[in-house]
Amino acid sequence: MRFSLRIALIIILALAEFACVARSNLIEGIKSFRVQDYRQAFVRLKPEAKKGNRDAQYAIGYMYYYGQGVVENRKKAWYWINKAAQAGQPEAVAALTILQQQPQSIWP
């Protein structure tokens, strides 16, 4: 019984540490974005965007749209901004509305 409790505690601590690291990536990515260190922001936020964080998704879309920290890619920008908007991220919803009104052939 004691062995099972130790294993359970080790698993819980490992999961908590993983959650802290993920949270740290998000926080550090947002900080980097705010100080316009877009390359570092992209590196930290892309994994969080892939995991479904809507704020990270919008930031990644923004960086792709304006070529901040990455090569400009409007199709990838659309993908990430749309994904964030579908998740209810307010700035992404507003951006998507504006993008849909632009007569550009890259928007689906």
From TrEMBL:
InterPro entries referenced in this protein's UniProt entry, alphabetically: Sel1-like, Sel1_AlgK, TPR-like_helical_dom_sf
Organism: Legionella clemsonensis
Name of the featured protein: Sel1 repeat protein
